[in-house]
Design brief:
Elements: H1 2-33, H2 43-66, H3 76-97, H4 109-123
Length: 130
């Protein structure tokens, strides 16, 4: 029972860490898109929510791939590959949500941008902690 509680706690902490790490990305997007603050977008949420869901996907991929290993026992290259898998999973979930309607321009641009951005952002290995 304690093992499951430790895993659940670790997965929750992973989600929070990813959400906090992605928060500045939302603020940066807000500064670029809306420099004068005219839009009513909560730019912190623009980075935090995808970061939280990236943490969820990473926790799932880590739970399946690592099995009995702790995160600090795995090589950085393997963690980066698992992060890439989490980004691809998150991109797939985004497409299932149907959030790509109402776009202008070529149909391939938005999927390429979303898949490459999410995959790149989740491939960056998490900071080591003791």
């Amino acid at each position: 029972m304690k093992t499951w509680l430790k895993r659940i706690r670790g997965a929750l902490m992973m989600r929070v860490i990813w959400a906090v790490a992605w928060m500045p990305i939302g603020l940066l997007i807000g500064m670029i898109i809306d420099p004068d603050g005219a839009m009513d977008e909560p730019w912190i949420a623009v980075g935090t929510l995808p970061g939280f869901f990236a943490g969820v996907c990473f926790s799932v991929v880590l739970g399946i791939a690592a099995r009995r290993q702790r995160l600090d026992e795995v090589s950085v290259a393997r963690v980066a590959r698992w992060g890439m898998g989490a980004g691809l999973l998150l991109s797939f979930l985004w497409f299932l949500s149907g959030d790509q309607d109402g776009r202008e321009g070529p149909l391939w641009v938005l999927p390429v941008v979303v898949i490459s951005a999410l995959t790149l952002l989740t491939t960056v290995p998490p900071p080591a902690h003791s």
